[in-house]
Design brief:
Strand order of the largest sheet: 14-13-12-15-16-17
Helix content: 10-25%
Structural class: alpha+beta
CATH architecture of the largest domain: 3-Layer(aba) Sandwich
Order of helices and strands: HEEEEEEEEEEEEHEEHHEHEHEHEEEE
Strand content: 25-35%
Oligomer: single chain
Shape: globular
């Protein structure tokens, strides 16, 4: 039975006998919408002659999950191929009676497939008062000085994919790493169902890397066994984090927790900065303040086999520039105890973003840099990526 109105459903239920089968209605996704990537399937269920025992989801003829109590929501991965997908929900009651609803979503029609090269902007409004309730008409986008027409406009809890880079080098001893890990635990437990993250612990090499997942228990598995040791290969770790995001779609985020002093990397930050530009990921740097260093001032004298003090200052400047031009934020922390609150602020920052999509009207060839200017009516300072490299 398909898309019945609640009043009509009530009449049907009243007309059925006590042995009637349960009813199910798939309310999400729409049956006429092509599916790509992560998709939420949501069903509403009405009992017949007995209480509901279980609700099962079959996606492309495979059983994906089972729920024994509401809400009846499931998350599936439809992949990125342009193809049909079959969705079926089966409800079974305590008497063994079943009800089912199914449909097949269409593939995107070939004659409608065009290369729109959608460019997305992730926007935060720096203001002392909330900027909720803005509409697309309040935003003006200039791409290399050319006004653009908004194709998509979203605000709020839009799913993201994040790589959490946690420095576990020797500088994180004396309980610092444990405190930082507590903040990471709170962050992953606060993620929404459609958010995904990967945890990456590093020193002068990779200590731990999880798969991308939305399951907190997988993300924090093994954290208690990590002991801080070794130097800091920050540039290399940031490069790997960005490359892990290469094949991910949608909103991409890097959260880096470190003092920012690289002493072991093979790659220079200038190379990593170029990769960050291509990835269009938003970078958030939770910068742990080093003893003896002035806030926002130059690095203290620091020499390694790789670089002298001036070399380290230049690397720090490159990292700072990469973060700011991505539309992200630098949060300087005086103590490691500030990490949990800083991660909470970062998550709230992502929740407050506007996501704007447009198809650039001017193309100048792959690798060309496009400068972005964004104006928002009635807003103060706007934080958004400075530009992008054309693909």
């Amino acid at each position: 039975m398909r898309r019945l109105l609640p009043g009509f459903l009530l009449l049907v239920l009243l007309a059925r006998s006590a042995a009637a089968a349960p009813l199910v209605n798939i309310v999400q996704p729409p049956p006429d919408q092509p599916l790509f990537g992560t998709v939420e399937v949501r069903a509403e269920v009405w009992p017949g002659g007995a209480p509901i025992r279980k609700v099962e989801l079959y996606f492309d003829r495979l059983r994906i999950g089972v729920k024994e109590a509401p809400p009846y929501r499931f998350t599936v991965d439809a992949g990125q191929e342009n193809s049909e997908h079959h969705i079926e929900v089966v409800v079974t009651d305590a008497a063994g009676a079943t009800g089912t609803e199914s449909f097949t979503t269409p593939a995107l029609r070939a004659d409608l497939t065009i290369d729109v090269r959608l460019q997305q902007l992730f926007v935060n409004l720096e203001s002392s008062r909330p900027q909720a309730g803005l509409s697309r008409e309040d935003f003006t986008i200039l791409d290399d000085g050319v006004p653009q027409t908004l194709a998509t406009f979203e605000h709020g809890d839009i799913p993201f994919t994040a790589v959490l880079l946690l420095d576990a080098s020797t500088s994180m001893q004396k309980g610092k790493l444990t405190t930082a890990v507590d903040g990471v635990r709170a962050f992953v437990h606060a993620m929404n169902r459609l958010d995904e993250a990967k945890l990456f612990l590093f020193s002068d090499h990779t200590l731990l890397e999880t798969p991308f997942t939305s399951v907190p228990s997988i993300l924090i598995l093994g954290l208690t066994d990590i002991e801080p040791a070794g130097g800091t290969a920050l540039n290399d770790a940031l490069y790997l984090g960005l490359k892990r995001l290469d094949d991910r779609l949608g909103r991409k985020v890097i959260v880096l927790l470190s003092d920012g002093v690289d002493v072991e990397s093979v790659l220079p930050m200038a190379t990593v900065r170029e990769v960050a530009r291509r990835s269009q990921a938003s970078l958030y740097w939770l910068r742990l303040h080093r003893e003896g260093e002035e806030e926002n001032g130059p690095l203290q004298a620091f020499y390694t086999a790789w670089r002298d003090a001036e070399g380290h200052r230049k690397e720090m400047d490159q990292l700072r520039a990469a973060v700011l031009e991505s539309g992200g934020r630098i949060d300087t922390l005086e103590r490691v105890e500030d990490v949990p609150a800083a991660l909470t602020r970062t998550l709230q920052d992502l929740r407050d973003q506007y996501v704007l999509g447009y198809s650039p009207m001017v193309h100048r060839g792959a690798g060309s840099w496009h400068k972005i200017e964004l104006k928002v009516r009635g807003a103060g300072r706007v934080r958004v990526q400075e530009g992008y490299l054309e693909r």
